Amino acid sequence: MRISANVSERAKEPPNIGVSVVILALGPSDMDAHGSLSAPAGADASGNDTIPTLRIPLVCRIRQPFLGDWALPGGDLQGGRSLEFAAEQALHSTTSLHPQYLEQLYTFGDPSRSHGGLPMVSIVYWALIGETEAKDFHEAQNVRWFPVNQLPPLAFDHKDIIDYALTRVRNKIEYSDIATRLVGSEFTLSQLRNVYEAIYGRKLDPPNFRRRMLSTGMVEPTGEKLARGAHRPASLYRYAAHPGTSKPQNATARQ
Amino acid sequence: MRISANVSERAKEPPNIGVSVVILALGPSDMDAHGSLSAPAGADASGNDTIPTLRIPLVCRIRQPFLGDWALPGGDLQGGRSLEFAAEQALHSTTSLHPQYLEQLYTFGDPSRSHGGLPMVSIVYWALIGETEAKDFHEAQNVRWFPVNQLPPLAFDHKDIIDYALTRVRNKIEYSDIATRLVGSEFTLSQLRNVYEAIYGRKLDPPNFRRRMLSTGMVEPTGEKLARGAHRPASLYRYAAHPGTSKPQNATARQ
DNA sequence: GAAATAGTGTCTTTCAGACATTATGTG
DNA sequence: CACATAATGTCTGAAAGACACTATTTC
């Protein structure tokens, strides 16, 4: 790619640019039937009250440094392509999936992070993938999905990056509509609550969650009900695209 | 720098990397005596109740595209240098100043943003500079300071970038200690409130501001007082580095 | 005393969380 | 009926904002 006359000239050259993605997916509870996960953490297998877990696909490194460790999916940035495009491409080539949500996380460029490899500026995105889509995934070569609370040894500074992404998404869910993108067009408040619980990593109080969601005006009832299990059926809701009273949210707020 | 065999090969090459800075400075009210500002917006000139204004240094472009428009200070990223270093260097070469606070804002890399210039990925930082330091600045060649509410025509997407930086800093000031970095080691609550007012761009209620600041535990009284003007002297406070009860804040939170 | 800012007290609203209670379905 | 989840109601405490009021200094 790059031709240098000598070593001293090379030191002044700009580093390479890569784009990586932290992919956060709501794993379905029966994911083991499709993939090869080591730790199922589903919620509706047998009426238990565990919470759904976020899962991250990682790629096993096949060269030094960090040979055999796991790393975030990514690739070099080609000219003429947007950063989002590069992030989506890295996501799709690893998982054969498309994200419900994609946002830039941070750009990591410290020279010390290459650890003997080529100096690299990594523009990192984070993506959200819902249950429905994650069901279709097939485990590609050198790719494995891990629960966020059971991550393997990670290459470079990728552990810090994942932690940062989790901090970001847990903050963002409080003031944006990203959670509604991970459920279908019609959903019960329990389903929506499960998304929040997966991202927060803890249980939420159902009555308070209901009141909070309805008070924002972001969801509205469809009038239909969904019967699932030996209990009272739940009302279905849809995402109210443009709530009248609440203030608009965009990607820039609270970044 | 980069040697390409032909045009088609060039299209696949990575774009150049630059680092730019949105420099936000608390202009002193008598800044006109030092610089050549068009619109003074000081607060203590004659007992008025205007609020201090944030100012931004911009560089006049001396080539196409956007010849004659104003742009953010910046430069190419050299290998072996951290992104922060490049941002500080761009800041210092433009203003001869060092920032109180420096934080990465966002990386802009859309191919359409070059507008006929060379394709460029811009890693943008934002910096805060306090009154004391801004007093020392000298107006360099092609550099001028503008109040944030009276910006000139800007090159590329730099207007969007500045707006984004203002959104970020106004959010960040709510849950971080960046404001205390813009006052001296000892300060009155009025002085601290002026920093908040400059960043928010609006007046704050003094009693409520006092209560809010003291309740966080981030400031503690020194026991001394400062007499300034025909009124009751104000108590001096210092920044309490590690408040006991409040939760720790770091650069990653709420990004 | 007038003026100006420093500082205290109080009231209201809003929101989050804890938790009791009722409602409605299935086995 | 037992049981599980849906949905409503109520209480409390924290935090923010409006604003009245007192305190202390200089001119």
Describe the structure.
The structure is a homodimer of 255-residue chains. Chain A has 255 residues and is of the alpha+beta class. Chain A has helices spanning 7-12, 83-95, 131-135, 158-175, 189-200, 206-216, and strands at 16-26, 54-60, 70-71, 74-76, 101-108, 120-129, 143-147, 186-188, 219-226, 234-239. In chain A, the strands form two sheets. In chain A, strands 1, 2, 3, 4, 5, 6 and 7 form a seven-stranded mixed β-sheet that branches. The radius of gyration of chain A is 20 Å and the shape is elongated. The first copy, chain A, binds a DNA duplex (27 and 27 nucleotides) through helix 6. Chains A, B: Keywords: Hydrolase. Chains A, B: It is an enzyme of class 3 (hydrolase). Chains A, B: Its EC number is 3.6.1.13.
